[in-house]
């Protein structure tokens, strides 16, 4: 199916940051999008053009309703890391996809996944999801992104960056990382829904090149037009801050990835793939400095703006 022919896409996770970026791009390109949410309409992020059904991934009938009439599906699992619960979600997705005749599923694993078992829920629950979807018999494309640039536009990074020129991140300074934006992820998903020759394997998405912490700070400096220094945060400190936003369970799940990387056991896990995925999917991820220039960083500044001075 051509990218120019409208699809009807069931998007799992559209109320999250990554799923939301995917849903927005699909509607921009005139595809029909339906998602599933437990939240009432007034408590969801604005997603013009997206139709919602009320329900839960743990209820098979709700998932069937999500998939009814869909030609394609995109799966980004929620921030849930209990193995039994994730397995139940994945099984319901498999049954619904089989019964409704979905042509292709794109699974955004939301992270790279090490080759061997790690005991880290952030990796292993996504590995299980991949395995169950792959065994469904439905055509599957798996995308494994590295780390999102959008994670750095946050209340635990923005103020120190804007006020002090310090880019804090819970990744070792020497680790090479292929940073990717949510928008570039969405472009990769859209391509994976229709591209020939990409089904049946996992693609390690890259951001064009790998950057160490110092190189990332230099790219931010070029985008901001000022000096920026990199500071590697302790994963424990990051987890405590994240827990205040997400709660302790999801925060521990997300932070498990950074705890693993801090051990140095898999130093190239988040590195660029040499451009293989970009070539296969026809992608040209934006350079880091270009992404930086597009963000409204001043919202994190503690210094009063002209607007706040006028209101005082």
Automatic annotation (TrEMBL):
Residues 9-240 form the NmrA-like domain. It comes from the Bacteria. The keyword NADP applies. Keywords: NADP. InterPro entries: NAD(P)-bd_dom_sf (IPR036291), NmrA-like (IPR008030), NmrA-like_oxidored (IPR051164). Pfam families: NmrA (PF05368). Belongs to the NmrA-type oxidoreductase family. This is NmrA family NAD(P)-binding protein.
